[in-house]
Amino acid sequence: MKFSPLLTELIEALRCLPGVGPKSAQRMAFHLLERNRRGGAVLADALQQALDKVGHCQRCRTYTEQDVCDICASPKRQASGVLCVVESPADIVAVEQSGQFHGRYFVLMGHLSPLDGIGPADIGLDQLQRAFSAGDLKEVILATNPTVEGEATAHYIADMANSCGLHASRIAHGVPVGGELESIDGTTLAHSFAGRKRVE
Amino acid sequence: MKFSPLLTELIEALRCLPGVGPKSAQRMAFHLLERNRRGGAVLADALQQALDKVGHCQRCRTYTEQDVCDICASPKRQASGVLCVVESPADIVAVEQSGQFHGRYFVLMGHLSPLDGIGPADIGLDQLQRAFSAGDLKEVILATNPTVEGEATAHYIADMANSCGLHASRIAHGVPVGGELESIDGTTLAHSFAGRKRVE
Ligand SMILES: [Zn+2]
Ligand SMILES: [Zn+2]
């Protein structure tokens, strides 16, 4: 004997969430059914809505339910001539909170990882190449994570930028090695941006 | 600048899950959108279905999408004359896996906890009283958790049963003090059932 069919399905379905095993899934299902049906209904709806409507910005690849995200739709941002390359949409939020950057972004949605079979096309570098070739950029700031893969990805993109005659700089001071960009405070990130160095 | 409205709503909504903070919620939302949209759609649907249809069994209070759960609907189980009182629907699954019990259940959906304002009516004891008075029971097995609250609840129910002229027994050997019934293996539970003692 197990739980009823619909409860069993809910427990199974909750396991698609990262870090959720059978016991957590069961605890979540009971919690929603017993103590927070309203929250559960809001979650079911928000999840359905997001899956139906949230896609990637056609220009920077961040998550948005529009064709083009708010930052990419801003003429001032577009006219800045500066592009910041980050690994994740969460990194945009972190950089924006530092208040030190007023240009555009490009989100890789990951980093180069040959061992996992993740190559340039998988992180949108063909699209980034087209942005580099468009002629409206004067600098590319490489704000990938300060990890081995993030550094390797930054160097790869710096080479692409240099080939197009663009300055590429890497954010520098204050980012702890091995850390994750999105968990760093705004002040530290502001220092990182101010102390960026050109990648040759 | 934050995430897009629908993504922000999804991250907020995921926080209704127990043990999920802002960072976990964000990681979950990204994971669903980026790597498992199919799993997310299944989850949204399973959650909606469960919220719409899963309620409590009219007889034993466990979760079911029927009026009466499969165990309560079994004439053999009903005719056994033995009722096992547990705290949670998960405990039924644990007891069933021990293979030692063939009677009916009653699920408290909690335990007495005066400090939290949880009294007899909140754990269905008025309904349990009616079952005791119906005249078709010969024994009540108290399988609440071996915690302070579980023991107090068992004693309270034993008194109710004795007042109705019913034998009440408490599962005993093998259940570690301070543990949770649902995490105990079937063999240990089988010993617990075999070694049960009458509560006077
Ligand atoms: Zn964009
Ligand atoms: Zn039932």
From TrEMBL, chains A, B:
The record's annotation in Gene3D superfamilies points to: 3.40.1360.10, 6.10.250.240, RecR Domain 1 (1.10.8.420)
The record's section on InterPro entries has: DNA_Rcmb_RecR, Rcmb_RecR, Rcmb_RecR_Znf, TOPRIM_dom, TOPRIM_RecR
Q: GO molecular function of the protein, one example?
A: DNA binding
Stretches annotated zinc finger (C4-type): 57-72
SMART domains (alphabetical): TOPRIM
State the function annotated in the UniProt record: May play a role in DNA repair. It seems to be involved in an RecBC-independent recombinational process of DNA repair. It may act with RecF and RecO.
For this entry, the protein name equals: Recombination protein RecR
Organism placement in taxonomy: Bacteria, Pseudomonadati, Pseudomonadota, Gammaproteobacteria, Alteromonadales
